[in-house]
Amino acid sequence: MNRKTMLVSVMMILALGVGVYGWTSANTANKNISQQKQELRTMASKNGSLETQLEALKLSSQV
């Protein structure tokens, strides 16, 4: 294997690693947002507070 082929292989492996890292980061962020929305909905249903319900509605309409 010559130097150019080896360099291309290393670059592809690095790009794949960066892609996987970005995908897992985005996936974690989406889970956190979903969890926060669920907590707000739970708070709204328990409290019956109009402000909390409004906040939950705003968040749920954003996605």
Task: Give a summary of the structure in a few sentences.
The chain has 63 residues and is mostly helical. It has helices at 3-47, 50-62.
Key words describing this protein structure:
63 residues, mainly alpha, 2 helices, rod-shaped
Describe the structure.
It is a single chain. This protein is mostly helical and 63 residues long. The chain has a domain at 31-63. It contains two helices and no strands. It has helices spanning 3-47, 50-62. Helix 1 (3-47) runs antiparallel to helix 2. The longest helix is centred in the middle third of the chain and has 45 residues, at 3-47. It is rod-shaped, with a radius of gyration of 22 Å.
Secondary-structure map with pairings?
Layout: H1 3-47, H2 50-62
Helix pairs in contact: 1-2
Number of strands: 0
C-alpha Rg, in Å? 22 Å
What would the average pLDDT be, to the nearest integer? 83
Low-confidence stretches: none
Specify the helix fraction band. over 70%
Q: Structural class of the secondary elements?
A: mainly alpha
Measured by DSSP, the beta-strand proportion falls in under 5%
Characterize the overall form: rod-shaped
Number of helices: 2
How far apart the termini lie comes to: 49 Å
Order of helices and strands: HH
Largest sheet: none
